[in-house]
Design goal:
Layout (H helix, E strand, L loop, with lengths): L1 H11 L16 H14 L9 H13 L39 H10 L10 H20 L12 H29 L4 H26 L3 H19 L1 H10 L12 H21 L6 H22 L10
Main location: membrane
Protein name: Sodium/calcium exchanger membrane region domain-containing protein
Membrane topology: Multi-pass membrane protein
Length: about 325
């Protein structure tokens, strides 16, 4: 009788998105997570009909659920004594804001989906943040159409190009102010570039990587970090040099830096150490791997500063 009841439960299990659906239908944990990740990656974020954010949120919440199976059999399917807590509760019907779920994460996604509002916030913490970012947010709000509004969706090319122009303007201010701070405190331009400017230009990449990683798009997070540096080297550096050459009758740009050759060699060594570290951690992101990355950056920073200050002499000078 028990075996027939188990067989009946296995046959009636419906592996589809529904409320209180038994997680035993997807019996293999690795296969379950792989299917969810594959489904998230195959969603079309550019299609309005696909409702990418809603579906990705639903699948992501299902992937995070823990199946507390008791007494698994050989094929990984639990018996009929599964507690009610082992059932996956997924809110399929989206609320009014179009975001699945009602937890804190859903509220954060709701704030991201809403158009920008300059209304005065309620809590003191938000009020302080409001005043700090107002000099940046206000010109963006005045000049760029908010594509999160239905009436402004068709103006997305203007918003895209305008955002790039504002990034260029803010980057110019950041470099200018960093240069002035360096001169005030007698810090060389090379050290400011290796520390303050390097961190300032990487923070946007950090934020975007964290956002897409939380949505389950780990490949996009890693490729963003690699692609941004490639773009900086192949476009960010030669484009202003090209403009300088055109304005100055193709006069060559003189670059002088202490230990430039050794710094380039050090970059290749750092790349090698990064690959070795990731391979040593079995190609998985963990806290230990993060600690290794911090240590490698600290070593690179110290050696680069010593090369620039001529504490360590590079045998090859450029």
């Amino acid at each position: 009788a028990n075996s027939s009841a188990d067989d009946e439960n296995k046959l009636t299990a419906k592996p589809r998105l529904q409320r209180e659906g038994s997680c035993a239908s997807l019996h293999n944990s690795l296969m379950r997570n792989s299917i969810f990740q594959l489904m998230i990656h195959t969603l079309d974020p550019l299609s309005n009909e696909g409702r990418f954010r809603e579906k990705a949120s639903i699948l992501h919440k299902m992937a995070k659920q823990k199946c507390k199976e008791e007494g698994p059999t050989a094929n990984g399917v639990g018996d009929k004594k599964l507690p009610n807590s082992s059932r996956v509760a997924v809110e399929v019907t989206p609320p009014m804001n179009g975001v699945a779920g009602g937890d804190q994460e859903g509220e954060e996604e709701e704030d991201e989906d809403q158009p920008l509002s300059l209304a005065w916030p309620d809590t003191p913490r938000k009020q302080i943040t409001y005043l700090l970012i107002l000099p940046i947010v206000l010109p963006l709000w005045l000049t760029l159409p908010d594509v999160r509004r239905e009436t402004s969706e068709r103006f997305f090319p203007i918003t895209f190009i305008g955002s790039i122009c504002w990034i260029a303007f803010f980057s110019y201010l950041m470099v200018w102010w960093a240069h002035q701070v360096g001169e005030t405190f007698w810090i060389t331009e090379e050290i400011m570039g290796l520390t303050i400017l390097a961190a300032g230009t990487s923070i946007p990449d950090l934020i975007t990587s964290v956002i897409v990683a939380r949505k389950g798009l780990g490949d996009m997070a890693v490729s963003s970090s690699v692609g941004s540096n490639i773009f900086d080297i192949t476009v960010g550096l030669p484009f202003p040099w090209l403009l300088y050459n055109i304005i100055n009758d193709f006069k060559p740009v003189e670059v002088s830096s202490n230990g430039l050759f050794c710094a380039i060699v050090l970059l290749f060594l750092m790349l090698l150490f990064v690959i070795i570290s990731i391979a040593a951690c079995e190609w998985k992101m963990s806290k230990f791997l993060g600690f290794l990355m911090f240590m490698l950056y600290f070593v690179f920073l110290v050696v680069s500063v010593l090369l620039e200050d001529k504490v360590i002499m590079c045998p090859v000078t450029v």
